[in-house]
Amino acid sequence: MNVLVTGGAGFIGSHVVEGLVTAGHGVICFDNFDEFYDPAIKRRNAAALSSCDSVRLIEGDLRDQLALDRCFNGERIDVVIHLAARAGVRPSLLQPELYYDVNVMGTLRLLETMRRNDVTRMLFASSSSVYGNNPKTPFSESDNVDMPVSPYAATKKAGELLCHTFHHLYGFDIFCLRFFTVYGPRQRPEMAIHQFARSIMDGKPISVYGDGTSRRDYTYIADIVDGINKSLSALQGYEILNLGESQTISLGDLIRLLEKAIGRKAILKQEPMQPGDVLVTFADITKARQLVGYSPQWPVELGLEKFVGWLRQTEEVSKHSLPSNN
To answer: Residue 292's closest CA among 140, 159, 177, 170?
Structure first.
């Protein structure tokens, strides 16, 4: 099977590509290496991936039709895993037009390119952010998601609607996968766990927004990749699936677990809650269990230990790669 992975050089994408290669699939890795965070990080991921004969790397933007056409020309694509997006809740408040352009128009352009090339199978990366401040927990796929609280969340809901439209009009098989706060090795550096861990290791203060009681359903990257692989095998019709750990932990307890894994106390700097933030995320994964056999295996305690080990190793490699003063 040949798989196009958009955003394939990013955090989640690079893990997904690795899994596809291990399973014996051919992969087209499409990424624009934008500057939302240091492009060198994604280029390192891409360099490791492109050393494999079954991976073809294409640098391009979802909004560039010529770049998309390069993906579909020359070889058959059987399925698309659409992970590329402008990420982040808080930044979307500052650049809502950019988020709409990339996440909505980019997704529409990709779907249209698929239609013209008779490619009708997709996994679409949605987000738990679509649930907003839903008072009912855990969040179920049948819950109303008509009240997003950030432009980012609104673009992800719009993406789901576009996917349903193409399923209805053209018979596309599409699963929209709502990811719940994914973390693990290669996590984007601006995300909370990565920021917190690095600050604790460096003895720098952590900005804690709110009183520390907000709760998140943190999902380890290996469980997300497993959920994607199982969704790929079951892909038929149109479905929305939660991929989370189905466990929550408070911000305060998360920091305490990081302190334990790192062996150092955090320096806390209290800040007010930020616009666009939600009080809780909590996945009901009953549907994903039943439909695709999704079964998360990584409790947050083990996942954080694994992440901290990766971060230490990365820091050590970076330290030894610096030029010598001798």
So the answer is: 177
